[in-house]
Every structure is written in C-alpha cells, then in structure tokens.
User: Fold this.
Amino acid sequence: MAKNDVLLIDGIIDERVEKKLPSQRRDEVFEYLAFEQILKDFDLSRDEIESGSVDGRNDGGIDGFFIFVNGHLLVDPQSFTWPKSGAQLDVWIITCKLHDTFKQAPLDNLFASVSELLDLGLSKEELKGDYSETILNCRENLKLAYRKLSAKMSEFSLNYSYSSRGNSKDVGESIVARSEQIKAASYDCFGNVSVNFQFHGSSEIVELHRKVPNFCLELPYSEVLSRGERYVLLANLKDYYGFVTDDNKLRRYLFDSNVRDFMGINRVNEDIKDTLENEDAPDFWWLNNGVTILATSASLVGGSIQLQDIQIVNGLQTTESIFNHFSEGKDDSKNRSVLIKVIVSQDETIRDTIIRATNNQTSVELSSLHATDKIQRDIEDILERNGFFYERRKNFYLNLGHSPSEIITPLSLAAGFVNLILKSPQKATILKSRFMRSDESYEMVFSEKTLLSVWPKIAFIIKHTDEVLEEIRPVGKNVTERFLKRWRQITSLISIARIFNTFNFSSKDLSQLDTEKYTKEIIVSTWKFFIEFKPDSISGSAWRKKSLYIDLCREAANKFDISGIERIQKNIRFQENGPTKWDNEAKNKIKVTMDFALKVHELLPPQPWKPGGHFEVIKELKCTPRDYSQAVSLLVEEGLRNNQKDGVVYDHEGNVLCFDPERVDPETMELIDA
Assistant:
C-alpha cells in the first residue's frame, strides 16, 4: 500500500462527513463507504445499502449482511420475485473497522458467530451467542433463500470482507489463519458453496472508489440501418457480451430504467438458453426480440456505434442470458448476432414513454411501471425547482454528483405523506416499497388530486428533521443510523402539529407552511419531550408498537396544547399490501378491547398455528369468529403476535420467522398440495 493511500481514504471520509453520507460520524461514514465500494457491482441505492447494515449491540462482529439472488438484493421476502430455476445466491458478510491496521479481535468475534449462525439447522433458541433481532432476521432470510432455492440453485457463493484503513499486504499470519478458519467453518455448514475472504484496506477501497460507472461505451456492429437518430443494429453476441461486461461482471447500472428483474431460467429464458447452446439453431436474432437502448447521443465510427448516457430499457432477460452463457466459458463458433434498437432522445417525457412501452409488452406488474407515471415526473419537476432531486430512477442524481442531502427517494417521500397527511406515523416508520404493489395504496399516496406544492414541504421537513436528529443522536453501540428511520416520522408529525396547534392540519395547510417556523429548536424540544415522557422507548423494539405513537401524540396534545388528537386516535389504517380504509367504517372498526385480546393471547399456542386451532379459543371465550379475528389483529399491531399466512409466520418487516413443516414446502415456502 502506498503510504499516501491512508491520506486519500481520510480525505474521502472527510468529504462525506461534510455531506453527512450517511452521518457525521467517521466510523459510520467509513462503514457506509466500504459497503458501497465492495458491493459496487450490484449498483445498490442508499436505502438498499442501509438495509444491509446490521452494526449495533449484539451484532456478532458483523457490520454488513447482504443477500443477493441473481444479482438482486433480498430485503423483503414477501415482495421479492423469486426465480423458478437457474438461481444464483450470493451472500456478503462484511466487518468494518476504522482502525489503521488489521486486528485479530474482530475476526475472533466473527469466527465465533458464523460457526453457529450459518448452521441453519439450529433454532434461534439453540444459539449460544446473544444476537440482535436484526442479525437473526438476516439469518432467517438466508435460511429462507437457501431452502427456497436449493432445488434450483446453479451457484452459491459466501463472501467475507474485513475492511479497515490498514495495509492489506501487512495482514499478520494469525489474522490470515483466522480468516481460513472462518472459511473452513463455512464449508462445514454448506456443501456446494464457494467461500471467499478478502481484506479491503485503504488501497483497495480507494481503487474501487475511483472506478466510476461508464455510461459512454462503444459497440461494434456487423450491420446497421439508420434514419436520423434511430438505429437498428446487428451485433455479434460476443461483442455485445463485452459491451455489457466490465471485469467479467455485468454492468448492472446500465439497466436502471429496466423495470423487470432477471427471473432466473423461466420458460422464456430457458428458450433463450437453449438457443444460445444449440449451434445448429437459426441465427440468434431470428428467434429473439433483441435489445432496446436509449442514449442521449450516438455516432457511427467505422464499424462501431459510440453511445452516450446509455440505458438498456428492454432486453434484460436476453442480456443476462447472453452474459451467463459467455461467463460460464461457453463460446459461439457460428458468430451469431443479436438485434439492437438504439433510440436517441434527450427529452425525458419521450424517454419515459419508451421505457413504459418497451416494458409493457410482456407481463409486468403495473406497480413496476410507476416510475414513469406523470405524477412522478411532476413531483420530480417541482422538487427540482425547490432545490431537491427526486430519485425516481435509482442512483440517477447520485451518479450526476448531487449531494445526498439534496436527494430524496420515492419511498422516503411516500413515508412522509403517510405520516404528515394520512396521520399514521407508525405505518410511515415501517413503510416498504411493496405498498406500490397495491394500486389503491399507491394512488392514495401519489394522487393526481394532491396539491403539487405539498411535496417540496414534505421533502424539506424530512431532510431538516434528519439533519437535526443526526446532530442530537445519542452515542452508543446500540444507536446507529437506524435511529433516524425510527424517529423522524413521529418527531416531525408532533413538531408540525405544534406549529399549526392541531393534528388535524390538511395538505393545503402544509403546502402553505412557512418553513422558517420549522426550526431546530422546535425539533430538539420535541425530542426532549420524548426522552422525558418515554425514556425506555428510545432503544429496543417499542418503536414498532402503534400504542407508543398514540401515547406520544396524546401526551404532546396535553403538554403543548395541540387540538385534533382524535384525528390520530382514529387515524387512517394504511395497509401496504391492500386498500386503505378508515377506522370509523363500521365494517372495519375494531370493537374488541385490549383486555379481551390479551385473553386470546394467553390461549393461543406458539406460532405457526394449525388450521382450525382458533375454534378452541372461540369456544373457551364464547366469542364470535369476528371478535377472535379482531383480537388477533390487535395483538399483531401491538407486536405480541406476528402475521401468519398459509402456514408461514412473518415479522413486521416481512422477514420469515418460522413455518409449519407439515403444511409448507420448505423449498418454495408454499402450501403443500393435499
């Protein structure tokens, strides 16, 4: 390692501390930087990177835990699109230390943890170590993915990284030996697995940091037909493979506008695979629809086309199949071709129309196409006029060099709307992107009827709240950047209600908010109120319970003389996976008391429940099935029980906790046919 590499890495950290990416704390900045660079080829968004951060108390020496299926990050098993065959599972376990050397203690801790965490046959109760809920959830997701994909897995890799500011060339023999022991323990847990252990020091991280996405590439062609700035090409399969590949890895950033994930080897992709492997088949482009590329400029030079600002908007299945064919060492002796359409346009509206049209020709969920909706473009425009950049296309503005403090994602903005307009801070805190799957839920948030002028105010409130909370965030191993996710919503709701003197403010009221009144002082005093009223809720799992948010709002109404508390008490019940309904609708209103729900809780066995088990509870309590159902819903809301569907039990974030082996296929997590 060059001596100056430490200075370079410290300079990068200093710059990011100023940008608060993700915070102002150097150890967290280095950790985020390491995750971002080590996993650069997966082209993760900030939300995705932070979802894999597990650093905190009882983390088992693990700072990052990332699971990829066919190159796509597994965050929410319930909404994830699982491949039917031809699956590739990649797991990354990362340990980061801001030290200027590599030390053995972190690997000692890691070795003790992975030896039992990766033994998926052990139940949570059988684990000897004390692990956080976050780590255990990651383990359950790995367990689910491994089981679900076991019969269709073509490749499984387990990757470890120990990152520090040190020199990877000077790692001591005892540390290297410990890394080999970690690899050996991993091989003991899994049969057909490829295990890698890497040391990332200052030199490696700086080198990765210098590697920027290349959106300007040259593609050789064999035939071309052009009219104006429209081109139809035939390109050699091997040349196209080189075009979409960098250092033997797929340039995933070229596909940000392609709304479909690679589905593994389904029927269509099986046909593509067979065509590639059968050299007696007709030319490839005869049997395949090809690829559509958007660019802002293109020029023909010799036998190549030079493209600027490339986005492959259709043909992900074709591209991944071609990539897999050649990356496996196979060849194409017939020099077959792939058909490529190139469309040049700098008009964002036209580009969005093309993206929607090319991706709407096959079966795609409507929710996947929302990024091109008119309302999304309108929000992007009005936010930009107010100094914010709306990341409706992943990493678009980040790649342009804009500061993270200026960028806001659709999920963050949606959570702000659910919190401030729908008055549901608890739902906003745990909101996940799967709410887009329900058209009713999506349209409830991103409605054409909503005043456009409210969106910049929501963006400002989110960003300013984060900025202040980051400054006053408690210091401690158990207080990480997840602190912001847990407390920004309720803090901002009560602070804004104090300005309006009511919880019952409307979207029109919010659109007219004088942002100068939303001061650091009011946010800090709201936070101090939380500490005084509910000091035990700052850490632990209390933030998940709906009752906490109601209690905080009710007490704030008394302390700060805020009216409209009834709006919170009968707030909108926002459902991520279905319609949004009002609590005061008679057919949905929960009439049972918490006392009754606790009686149900005492009679219920551990989950997963067997079919028909509820009849015993109903008989014992002499209640109706509706009473029982509402009691269970209340228990789930309060975190005393978990969601269960078709024999599978999920936590509030969609992670699989357990399942009924008599009813559920462990490979597919689906009900076994009778």
About this structure: The radius of gyration is 26 Å. The longest helix spans residues 454-472. The CA atoms of residues 299 and 306 lie 5 Å apart.
